[in-house]
What we know:
single chain
Amino acid sequence: MDDATLAALRNAAAAASDVGFAAMAGALATPALLHDASSGWAARRARRCRTLFTASASLSLVAGLAWMALQALAMSDGAPVEALLGVGGIVVDTGFGRAWAVAIASLLASLALAGACRYRAFPLRALGVALAVIASAQACLGHAAADGLGWLVPTMAVHRLATGLWAGGVFAAALVVLRGSPDAVDCARYARHLSQLATAALAGVVLTGAAAAWHALGGTLAPLEPARASPWSVVLEIKLALVAAAIALGAFNRFAVLPSLPDAWPRFARMLRVESALLLLALAAAAWLAGGEPPAI
């Protein structure tokens, strides 16, 4: 398998892992958004978030394992079996290998905890701590930890958590909440809570993302100029365009559609589904950027 194919597959695995992580965050946030709802519709949506969390954690786990397998193949000149057997050495000898092991262990612990509490109250706080650990470990897998555990690592950890809450809240809405006939009162209340969560998370995404992008660009916007554009900077611009479009849709939903709920619920749902598709593409672009070489590296 050539290097280009390995890189493409590795980026695809990273994107799948990021999507799974975001959906996990959304599956945990949604029951909290429905905490003051009393209808059967809301109770069913909250219960289905358990299934979404388990499925999302499983996706992130499988994608994470595939990512390391592909990383081992890329780092080895030997046969595939020999490369895969060398994963243990990567974990022991490299910082990113140890960070990957922490992320995988946390995903396994999350799945075990969710399964153990299947017939009890969902342990939102414990799983939230696990998500924070996963985000911190994943922040150490990319360029953020290239110069050690400096300010960029916690910045990227917060960025991952904020992105997960924003994108994950929208994913959970599209996959779980928007299905079925909603309760008139609870759907409007849920929409307001979701909008508030997205606004707060978006502020974190913009602040931390701007800091990380500025660092990756070397403290200048010159790499974004057409004459000096690189594949990395082009993908960054595509990601920014996708994020801007998602923000515009979210703003339209909040200011033009949300005041008309519950009558405008179908329109609200359509806009959220489009927003979820844009955020899915943005996460794919972010995974490519994490696996590429920014101008400042």
